[in-house]
């Protein structure tokens, strides 16, 4: 007898033991194992569903954050552009005000120079007339007393000088 020819009574005992162990596993342990595996599968599926929901919510929050960030960048660009435009306007206003003040100063200075020129010209004409009368009196050897006549001669001379100056200009 060897392993290839088992004894019938040993074979029956082995078959009964196998059947007892098999039925014990099939009726008692296998349902508990299946129940534990089912619970584990449900827990994994629930965790996966929860993780997918959290991931979807995170994507929505990220998209909202990106949209707000983009809007904030656009708003910052608009504010910068408005500030640049306002700066240009202020510079133009200051330049215009400076130009106006410069023009006023130039006009005032020109008017003052013209008034000073007229006063200086009148004073010089009087001095030239007085010197001319003194010189003419020294040349003649006697003082010239007809100031009205001397004034007419000086006026005629100055009129000729003014006419010559205006034709040259």
Automatic annotation (TrEMBL):
It is found in: Cell membrane. Signal peptide: none annotated. Pfam families: ATP-synt_B (PF00430). The keyword Transmembrane applies. The keyword Cell membrane applies. Residues 55-82 form a coiled coil. It is a single-pass membrane protein. The chain crosses the membrane at residues 12-30. CDD domains: ATP-synt_Fo_b (cd06503). InterPro entries: ATP_synth_B-like_membr_sf, ATP_synth_b/b'su_bac/chlpt, ATP_synthase_B_chain. Keywords: ATP synthesis, Cell membrane, CF(0), Coiled coil, Hydrogen ion transport, Ion transport, Membrane, Transmembrane, Transmembrane helix, Transport. Its main location: membrane. F-type ATPases have 2 components, F(1) - the catalytic core - and F(0) - the membrane proton channel. F(1) has five subunits: alpha(3), beta(3), gamma(1), delta(1), epsilon(1). F(0) has three main subunits: a(1), b(2) and c(10-14). The alpha and beta chains form an alternating ring which encloses part of the gamma chain. F(1) is attached to F(0) by a central stalk formed by the gamma and epsilon chains, while a peripheral stalk is formed by the delta and b chains. Component of the F(0) channel, it forms part of the peripheral stalk, linking F(1) to F(0). Belongs to the ATPase B chain family. This is ATP synthase subunit b. It comes from Streptomyces macrolidinus.
